[in-house]
Amino acid sequence: MNSETLDTTHTAWYVVHTKPRQETRALENLQNQGFDCFLPMMQVQKLRNQRVQTVAEPMFSRYLFIQLDDTTQNWGPIRSTLGVSKLVSFGPQPAKVPPEFINFLKDAPPEALEHMFAPGDSVQIANGPLQGLEGKYMAHDGETRAFVLVDLLGQPQKLRMAVESLRVNI
What is the Cα 55 distance to its own chain's centre? Predict the structure, then answer.
């Protein structure tokens, strides 16, 4: 059921949790069953065979979005689809995603979604044992990590940090 055939008054976007590294497989299999799905992708640079390569990866590892009619559509086949782990739920209710968020992801220019920080940005570590420490953002490192240059014991140290633990230093 693609977006042309769904009555949007009864549809909502939901989150599908996929099996590890099977986002595109789940997307393809769900689309083959007629579901309207969206898998936001982003370009990342990775070091492979001592060369930097730009590759497309899912923006949200192990997640994709599916638009479902909450009154007439049969949701049963979703759980048994190859690549799908489950529908994300809070208690018995599947987790709805605001349509504005999906529209933002679809309409935003790709470079706006690639990295939250630019090299040289002043950042602060927001949690963990180094909470409150300030540093300079150096580079993105894969899906969820970044290199940050911090001053520890009077020496600059290059640390590999989780991106979600960094905040812009104001």
Answer: 15
Judge contact between 1 and 36, C-beta under 8 A: yes
Task: Look up residue 136 and give its two tokens.
Answer: 């300079």
pTM surpassing 0.85? Answer: no
For the chain, which residues make up each domain, given as ranges? 11-110
| Whether residue 67 has pLDDT greater than 90 | yes
Taking a C-beta distance cutoff of 8 angstroms, is the pair 100, 65 a contact? no
Number of H helices, E strands in the chain: 4, 14
Q: Which amino acid is present at 52?
A: V
Tell me the C-alpha to C-alpha distance, in Å, between residue 88 and each of 23, 45, 95.
14, 29, 6
The CATH T-level fold of domain 11-110 is: Alpha-Beta Plaits (3.30.70)
Q: How far apart are CA 78 and CA 75, in angstroms?
A: 6
The token duo for 132 is: 């409150």
Q: Residues, the chain, total? A: 170
Per-residue pLDDT at 166: 82
169's tokens: 């230093």
Whole-number Å distance between alpha carbons of 77 and 53 = 37
When the pLDDT of each residue in the chain is averaged and rounded to a whole number, the result is 83
